[in-house]
Fold this protein.
Amino acid sequence: MEFILASSNPHKAEEFSLLFEGKLKVLPAPSSLEVDETGVTFQENAYLKAQSYFKKFKVPTLADDSGLVLEGLPELLGVQSARFAPELPSYTDKCQKLLDIYQEKGIKERGAYFVCVLCFYLSDEEVYFFEGRMKGDIANEISGAHGFGYDPVFIPEGQTVSVANLPEWKNEFSHRARAVKNALSFFKENVDKPHKKL
Ligand code: ITT
């Protein structure tokens, strides 16, 4: 099976190429599309992205919708994670702004989790979703040079440093890695059985 990746985020493509290595063929899309992410859930937005690329390129498509959910500020990021503080061009500034909001509002609840929903759009009749999560806490300061987005301010459960310091760990246990594992075990289970339609 071969899929194109319905994403314009090069960091996601990089992570997927390690995660799918030799197991599922995921190719870059011929070009990237502007998709209005109007859904209110990660599933809806993953579906909107996968469907738009499928309609345009007419080949099986994989989309990722992901984000960071903050227990103490549930409205702030979530499905809007990519659209937080649009006036700030860099993620270092966005991460700092996030930390400042915790400080200014005196928010003690620093629990958070990343969510990744994958949508495999094989045809209009055959669409599969897989989810992965990574739990942790929002750090007190920015640290680490790996990863992307909010990695420098997220300390995963059981770790003492941000995920931006833990590239190998992230590749094994991130929300994206867990969603990919779920997808791979489903496809392995089903592709080997010819009576099942895929
Ligand atoms: P596409 O929609 O084109 O795939 P995007 O970056 O806009 O790219 P999303 O709408 O799924 O993707 O937004 C996800 C945002 O959540 C992303 O821009 C980051 O800010 C954040 N995010 C997702 N996964 C992350 C990760 O592994 N580490 C850090 N931040 C992450």
